[in-house]
Amino acid sequence: MNIKRSILLRVRVVFILVALVAAAIPYRIAQLQLDEGDKWREKAETINFQYREVPATRGNIYAGDGSLMATSLPFYRVAIDPTIVKEDRYKAKIDSLAQKLSAFYKDKSATAYKRMINDARKDNKRYLVLNRRQIGYQDMQEMSKWPIFRGGRLGGGVLFEKVEKRYRPFNSLASRTVGFLNEDEYGAGIEYSFNEYLKGTDGKALFQRLAGGSWKPVFDAEDVKPENGSDIVTTLDVNIQDVAETALRRQLVDRNAEFGSVIVMEVKTGEIKAITNLQKNKSGNGYGENYNFAIGDQGNTEPGSTFKLLSILALLEENKISLNDKVETGNGAHKFYDRTMTDAKNGGYGTLTVREAFEKSSNVGISKLVDEYFGSSPSKFMAYVDKVGLKEPVGFQLVGEGKPYFKKPGDKNWYGTSLPWISIGYEIKLNPLHTLALYNAVANGGTMVKPMIVRSISKGNTIQERFDTEIIRDRIASEKTIKQLQELLEGVVIRGTARNIANADYKIAGKTGTAQKLVNGRYTRKYYTSFAGYFPADNPKYSMIVVIDSPEGFAAYGGDVSAPVFKEIADRIYALDIELNPSNQNQIFQAENNDSKVPFIKAGRGGELNEIFEELGVKAGAANAEEWVKMVSNSDQIQWQNNETDEAKIPDVSGLPLRDALFILENKGLKVNYSGKGVVKTQSLSPGTTLTQNATINLVLG
């Protein structure tokens, strides 16, 4: 009995508790709706609606001539709110829309697209991404005319969500210099170094959170528009850049080298016209721009004999020597304490003048002179490193410039052999940019200018910041010393280790460099080869350095490997530069006969020819701006005929100036050799024949 009474008591208690809870629920609902409704509605608004950042359009990067090197192109992700469309319109047009989507994306049937949109409409889904593939602006314009979509955002529910992508019109040209930026805003090159200018200021817009965690833009009057980024105008010349990359790549492949770098700089201004870095891919198949060896820490290495220019400068400035003084190199070996210095030539050079020691790049000759006159005061020699501006970085405009490394007399790692080896470019580290700055200063009459790669920052037609030529050292040496150094550098090409690149049309001045590679503390038979110099030697306009690391094959020295690349690039720049070689361009306007009433131009790009004739006031038939054309008549009005260059055939480049012929042929994968000046007269491969990659074509100009 007591048990029954106990059970009944417990049941009554549970019943009362359940009743109280049941009564509390509607009370709490009423309280939430009436007393706390405003509070929670505001909370819901905060959760489901947010002002989110709208990325600004990134600024463009231009070459010095205005050629576009990097830009942001708009792409679009296509989504729809299928609940917006009115029922009668939806039923009438959904089949047509589904067919359009299927035909465009080619990933689903029209039935599948219709089912997907129908299901979203039935489930009252306010946001449906139709396809993850992004479309271009022209496709977006066309889609906006499709059934249902033509009603726009408010009538058709279509959403074209803008997504910007970085695009390079010249593909991989100067890719490491133009650089990149990842999602964490870390990268390299101009994109990274000038990101604060390029990125602009993001805006804000109202977004609604939908089921599944996606966000849909809600157009609101309080949206803050983004401020687009500024444009960067570089000093690069795309023609010179293309020539430099082509020549370097060819030599790297031929010599199976590890990597190579080229910098081309304008002597007076310090403006870099080309900078290329090519490294063997990890797979060993081809070369790509993976690191900027020209300026970065990994490019810091023992320069070898190009540093002998500094050694001779110090000796001349101290009035220790004259160029005709004699130095005994003996059999090509000389012992400094416990180490033996050797020359490249077996058996040595015997007795040489200072001039000959430099031209032949005698290690023994240069190191003996430096040790004789600075051995008791090595600090005096090292002071010239600082005097010429090589001790510290130049303050280049791109992030990541390597710091030069020089031992100091008195340091723990300074030995009796340090000075002789430093004098020929060992036990120090310089990157190609620093070495080029020294050679450019000699070409510039002793004035060292800071290398620069960005000329200005602008927005629209307004220049926000301009970068002018900056002088690092007014004079690195006396006028007399500079002239003597110029004589020596010319002599290297005329009589010395680079006589294989002497050119009859213009003079080249420079110095070869070959440094043994230090691997695991031991010098190996692998070499770091280089050639630094300038041209034309009698009136320098361009300076250049070429370095190639670990080339294979016979005679893997600077004069055999890097110097020919220098010459190939210099030859083509000379042919392209009207200021250096005006006769090449003047021939374009020579008439075939004296009775002609119009200038005689055989061929060219339509857009450029239109501009020329408009400026001259000459009547000419309209030429497609993007097409290569040939002249078919020479009368009162010039007529043009398309000169097809896009087919997989050997193109006809007759009548074209060398610059245009090189552009067309090299872009087709042909190797080009040429002789003469002017426009193309004949070509070795007949126009219209089948194109073979890496074939060689010989051009005769006249």
UniProtKB/TrEMBL annotation:
Keyword Lyase: no
Keyword set includes Cell cycle: yes
Pfam family, one: PBP_dimer
Record's protein name: Cell division protein FtsI (Penicillin-binding protein 3)
Residues annotated as domain PASTA: 644-702
Matching SUPFAM superfamilies: beta-lactamase/transpeptidase-like, Penicillin binding protein dimerisation domain, Penicillin-binding protein 2x (pbp-2x), c-terminal domain
Keywords recorded for this protein, A-Z: Carboxypeptidase, Cell cycle, Cell division, Hydrolase, Membrane, Protease
GO biological process, one term: cell division
MF terms in GO: carboxypeptidase activity; penicillin binding
Subcellular location: Membrane
GO cellular component: plasma membrane
